[in-house]
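Try this one yourself first.
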């Protein structure tokens, strides 16, 4: 019993060692796959117990199936935002006096000079 009647607000509990909040135990999370009558959910919800003594054991590995049109309050989805990737460009200045003229060499060893 955590004091909440149903789901708890986001970040109510501390994050795990990777910095993720609420990975299990709040609501079953819809997953990709399954059929209309047997959609896959994972993670358990607030109506499950840690040891599995009633309903399911609330673990990250818990999986179940539900009908695709269910409207129960203990099933939802996780909103995630991936970090924006940094674009890194490595520019190297090519000096013909010190490095020579640029050329492309094919698999037979023939070099084609690139005009500058």
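Now uncover the answer:
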């Amino acid at each position: 019993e955590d004091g909440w009647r149903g789901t708890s607000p986001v970040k109510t509990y501390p994050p795990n060692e990777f910095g993720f909040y609420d990975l299990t135990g709040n609501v079953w999370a819809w997953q990709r796959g399954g059929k209309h009558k047997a959609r896959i959910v994972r993670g358990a919800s607030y109506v499950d117990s840690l040891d599995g003594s009633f309903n399911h054991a609330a673990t990250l590995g818990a999986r179940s199936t539900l009908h695709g049109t269910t409207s129960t309050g203990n099933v939802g989805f996780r909103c995630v935002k991936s970090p924006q990737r940094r674009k890194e460009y490595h520019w190297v200045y090519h000096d013909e006096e010190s490095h020579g003229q640029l050329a492309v060499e094919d698999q037979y060893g023939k070099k084609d000079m690139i005009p500058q």
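Discussion: The first helix runs from residue 96 to 99. The chain has a mean pLDDT of 78.
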